[in-house]
Amino acid sequence: MQLVKDIGEQGLLAKLQLFCDAEIVGDDGAILALQPKHQLVVTTDVLVDQIHFCDRTTTAFDVGWRAAAANLSDLAAMGASPLGITVGLALPGEVTIAWVEELYQGLFECLQQFNTPIVGGDLCRSSVTTVSITALGEVTPDKIIRRSNAQVGDAVVITGYHGLSRAGLELLLNPTLGKNLDRQEKEFLIQAHQKPQPRLDVISKLQKIDCSSIEIAGMDSSDGLADAIVQICRSSKVGAIIEANTILLQPSLFKLVDSKQVWEWILYGGEDFELVLCLPFQFAQALINQLNTGAAIIGQITAEEQVVLTDSNKSNFSQVLTLAKGFQHF
Amino acid sequence: MQLVKDIGEQGLLAKLQLFCDAEIVGDDGAILALQPKHQLVVTTDVLVDQIHFCDRTTTAFDVGWRAAAANLSDLAAMGASPLGITVGLALPGEVTIAWVEELYQGLFECLQQFNTPIVGGDLCRSSVTTVSITALGEVTPDKIIRRSNAQVGDAVVITGYHGLSRAGLELLLNPTLGKNLDRQEKEFLIQAHQKPQPRLDVISKLQKIDCSSIEIAGMDSSDGLADAIVQICRSSKVGAIIEANTILLQPSLFKLVDSKQVWEWILYGGEDFELVLCLPFQFAQALINQLNTGAAIIGQITAEEQVVLTDSNKSNFSQVLTLAKGFQHF
C-alpha cells in the first residue's frame, strides 16, 4: 500500500485536486460569488481519529460523508444553501493514499447531491489524523433560522426519526444485538449512522409554504434531540412542553433494546442530523405535509423557562430535559 | 495550573467567547454580510504542535498571532479585505487554560489591527494540539490578484525585506549566533519571526495608484521568495529575470552568517509574509513610492519559462530558481 510519506505533499495534492473545483482552487484563496442580497453563513467542525471516528465503525469514505453531512446540516439549520467547503487535513505519514482518497470520495459524494464543491484546503503532517471542515452557505436575511427566534405558542417540529444513528452505531459495535432484526432493518439503521442526510431539502420545502412573514427558530439535532430543544429554549428565553406520544418511533429499535434505552437514544443519542424547528402551528402543519414519515409536531413553546417531556398516556409522567446527558467533548 | 480537562468544553467555550464577536457567534453558523458587488475569498491553514510550532521558539500568543497573520496574508495575496476568521481547535486535556487563552489573545490582537472578528469555531479533544484557521475576505472582481495574471514585461515587486523571519528563528534556536548583534537588532529579527505583519496595507495602497485598468499577479512569500516567484511564473506560463542587486539586504543578517547563508534565507527561508506582485513598471514604481524601505522592483517577467537570478556586479553569475529547496510538509 502506498503511504502519504511515499508521495509527499505535492503528490498527494495532485491526487486530491481531482475532487476539487479546478476553477476555484490553485491560488492563495478561493473566490466564490454570492447571489445578490444574500448573506454569508459559515460553520466549522474538527474531527479527530479515535475521538470522532475509528476504523472499527467508520471507513474513510464514511468519515468523509459524515463530515460533509454534519457541516451541511449546520447550514440547513441556519436556513442557508451551501456554496462550498474547505478541507484542512493533518495526517501522519503512515496513512495510506487509498485512505485519503476514500475520505475525499466520501466528502465528494455527499456534497455532489447538493452540487456543492470543495473550494480549498490545507494539507500538513501530524501525529494524528485530523479533518477540519469549514462550510460556506448563503441566505437572504429574512430567511435566517436562529436558535433565538422561538416564540411562545410556536409548534416544535422535528423533520424525521430520532435514535437511528445511535442504534446503527451500537449494531456496528455489537452485532449480536441485532439478532431479532432482518437484514433490511439492520442495513437501514447502519446507513442512518454511516451516511446521514443533511436536511437541506427542508430548506427548499420551507420556501414552498410561504413563511416569509415569520421568523423561524431552529437548529439541528446532531448533539441529540433534547440538546437541540434545550439550546433553542435557552437562546430564546422560553420553555417547551414536549409530548412523548407525538414522537414517532422506529419499531426496529424495540427489537434491539428495552423501551427505556430507546428513549435514551431518541433524546440523547445524537447524530441524527434532523432539524428541530419552531414556528406557528399553521405553518408547522403545512411543512409536515411536505415531509416524510417521522416528521411531526412534538410540542409547543411555553413562557416558563424549562423543557418538560410529558406523556398523555401516562398520568404523572413528567421529566425535565437538560443538556447534562449530552455528549461532552473533554 | 488549571487544565482544559478540569473545566471541560463548555467551561472553555465560555472563556473563549470573550474573544469572539457576540453578535455573530452562538448559532450553528455565523452570518456575515459582504459589501455589494464583492466576492467572497476563502483560505484555510492547519497548524500542528511540534510541526509548525513548539514551546521552545513560540509562545501560545505567538502561535495565535502567526496563525492569524498567515491567513490574513493569504487574503492580502488575493487583493481582499478581511471579514473574519473561524478557529477549529483540537486539544489534549492536559493543555493549560492559560495556554489556550494566550493563543486566542494572539489571534485577537493580530486581527484587531484590521478590525477583523473571530466569527466562529469548534473545540474538541485530541492527542495533539491542532489549530485550523479559515479566513474569509471580500474583493471586487476587478481587484482580484491571481497567481496566473503575470504578463511578459511586468515588473516583479517585493513589498519588503526577506530572510528576517528565518534569521529570527535561528537566533531563537541558537542565541550565541547573535553575539555580534546589539539588543535592538536581535529584537527586530525575533519580532519578524514571532509577530509578522500581513501586508493588508499594500491592498489599500494599490487603490491609491489607480490601477483598476490592469490585472495584477501575485502571492505572498510565506513559503519563500523563490517559491513565490516560481509559483507565479508557473501559473502564468511565463518566466522571470531577477536581479540580485536590486533585492535590499538587512545589514544585520551579515553579522549572523556568511553571504551564501544570507541568500539561502532570503530566497528559501520563508515566512516573511511579504507580497510578491507583478504589474506594469509605471504602476510598480508608483506602488514602491507608497511603501517603506525594503520594497523594490527586483526583476521582470519574461516569455522564457524559467526563473533566473542574475547579478550585474558579477559577470557569469546566473542561477535558475526552483521550488526544490522549498519547505516540504511530509
TrEMBL record, chains A, B:
SUPFAM superfamilies: PurM C-terminal domain-like, PurM N-terminal domain-like. It holds the Pfam family AIRS. Substrate binds at H52, E271, F327. One of its GO terms (biological process) is thiamine diphosphate biosynthetic process. It comes from the Bacteria. Mg(2+) 5 binds at D223. Reaction mechanism of ThiL seems to utilize a direct, inline transfer of the gamma-phosphate of ATP to TMP rather than a phosphorylated enzyme intermediate. This is Thiamine-monophosphate kinase. It comes from Stanieria cyanosphaera (strain ATCC 29371 / PCC 7437).
